[in-house]
Structure formats: structure tokens, C-alpha cells
Amino acid sequence: MIANEMMEQLRIRKLVEDWALWRDAGDWERFRTVWHDDGVMMATWFQGPAESFIQVTREGWDKGVSILHFLGGSTIDVVGNRAIAQTKMTISQRATVDGVVCDVVCTGRFYDFFEQRDGRWGFVLRQPIYEKDRLDPLDPAARLELDSELLARFPEGYRHLAYLQTKIGFSIKPDMPMLKGPSVERLYARGAAWLAGQPLEM
Fold first, then answer.
1. Is residue 72 within 8 Å of residue 94, measured between CB atoms?
2. Sign of CA dihedral 156, 158, 160, 165
3. How far apart are CA 47 and CA 5, in angstroms?
4. Tell me: the pLDDT tens digits for 57-116?
5. CB neighbours of 45 closer than 8 A, spacing ≥ 6?
6. Would you list the domain boundaries of the chain?
7. Residue 109 · residue 132 · CB < 8 Å
8. Which of 72, 74, 142, 156 counts the highest number of beta carbons within 10 A?
9. Model pTM?
10. 125 forms bridges with which residues in the sheet?
11. How confident is the model at residue 162 (pLDDT cuts 50, 70, 90)?
12. Which CATH number fits domain 2-189: 1.25.40.20, 1.10.3430.10, 3.40.1000.10, 3.10.450.50?
């Protein structure tokens, strides 16, 4: 029983790693295979069906949008044909902010809803949790003065990421889960309900 559970955890972890590698490498056809057809992606700048996410991500890639991911450890709970995976990660994005080329790095977790259908695990929902971030000019001698009023509009866990993304034209979701607070508690409750066999309400 333990060996079987570990095997399913390994299969799910492989999907988590495939997501990051194939998305960041622009391997769109293989990236599509990690999702179920009704999969949903949530991010600061996008919320919707996985297929639409692939399309807009590819369009951004072609325009030079630079967003990369790095993964850390995972914990994966498997109950029957359902699973919840939490994986430490960083999101790194490079863009020009007010004429200064900058990197923003956001640390958090991917909180993923998986289901096994016809013998195949796939993503049903990916919901990042944003814990803390920072913004740095590539040139340490560059002078960058952030708009403090604009910066203060965004939640603490992804404040600088949202600032950069807003500056380059994205609309940002203001209530994403962070390390603490009602949004992440609701997410944990949804995860527990998913493992208990309840339908996932989007």
C-alpha cells in the first residue's frame, strides 16, 4: 500500500516538474499534456481554462515576455483518484520598469488539484500561493524610484510582482492566496473538500 502511494506521488511530482520545464522552454505541445481538458490555471495576471493559458503564454513568449519558474520540495496527499500537491517554487520575471530593466522574484508554493482519469493523472486546478517577493534592477547602479501609491495597492505577498506586471500592461487579481489570511484558508478548505470527494467549484 505504501509503495503504491509513493508511486502515485512520483507520477504527480513528475507532472509538477514537467509543467515548469515544458512551459518555461516553450514546449507547448508537451505542456498541454499535463492538463485535463477542463483544467484551470490561476495566476496574478491570468485566470481561466488551461488551453487559454497556453495560448496567451505562447503569445507572450513570442513578444518577449520573460517569466521563469524554479521548483523546490513537494508534499503530495493522495486519496483514491484525487490528490493535492504543494510545491515550493519561485517565479522570476524580467521586464523594463520606468526605463530600468529589473528582475522580480516571488517565493511561494504551487497548490495543485490533481485527478486520475482513465489511468492518467492531470492538473485540474493550479493555484499559486504568493508568500514574499522583491524587485531589483539588473544594473546595481541604476536609479529606480517606485510609485509608492501604486505599490501600496497590491497585496504584500506579491506586491512587487504585481507592480512590474501592471507596468507592462497586465491586469492583476487583487485577492490571491498568500502565506496567511482568509484566501489561503479558503484554499486549504477547498483542497480538503477535493480529497473528500466533493466537486470542485471554480
1. no
2. negative
3. 31
4. 999 999 999 999 999 999 999 999 999 999 999 999 999 999 999 999 999 999 999 999
5. 165, 170, 171, 172, 173
6. 2-189
7. no
8. 74
9. 0.95
10. 40, 113
11. very high
12. 3.10.450.50
CA dist 80 to 116, 123, 125, Å? 9, 15, 17
Euclidean distance between CA atoms 50 and 37, whole angstroms: 8
Each residue's pLDDT tens digit, 99-128 = 999 999 999 999 999 999 999 999 999 999
Q: Please say if the pLDDT value at position 142 is more than 80.
A: yes
The residue type found at 147 is D
Cell numbers describing residue 110: 504551487
On the question of pLDDT at 18 being above 60, the answer is yes
Residue 68, helix vs strand vs coil: strand
> Where do the H-state alpha helices sit in the chain?
2-25, 28-32, 50-63, 148-151, 159-167, 182-195
| Close Cβ partners of 88 (under 8 Å, ≥ 6 residues apart) | 71, 72, 73, 74, 107, 108, 109
